[in-house]
């Protein structure tokens, strides 16, 4: 079972619409660890670590986000694997 971590930066109408909470809900369903965090520039940063298929599924979900959000762009980068406890909303 192969694992990875990806950091994503989500741009659009993604703050004040429950984006971090919905992201955490999706990540927990997929057994991922990491976090979702609002950034001062209006983006949301998401770190997702876990099985390749699960991380890919969350990244696909981020492209549209929850119905309350308006996702314009998602920039993704692979980051070094790290063990993270749970999925946090920061």
UniProtKB/TrEMBL annotation:
InterPro entries documented for this protein: Acylphosphatase, Acylphosphatase-like_dom, Acylphosphatase-like_dom_sf, Acylphosphatase_CS
Active site: 20, 38
Pfam families: Acylphosphatase (PF00708)
Record keyword Hydrolase present: yes
EC class (word): hydrolase
Keyword set, alphabetical order: Hydrolase
The keyword Hydrolase appears for this protein: yes
EC number: 3.6.1.7
Top-level taxon in the UniProt lineage: Bacteria
Catalyses which reaction(s): an acyl phosphate + H2O = a carboxylate + phosphate + H(+)
PANTHER family reported in the protein's UniProt record: ACYLPHOSPHATASE (PTHR47268)
NCBIfam families referenced in this protein's UniProt entry, alphabetically: PRK14426.1, PRK14451.1
Family (UniProt): Belongs to the acylphosphatase family.
Protein name, UniProt field: Acylphosphatase
Organism: Salinivibrio costicola subsp. alcaliphilus
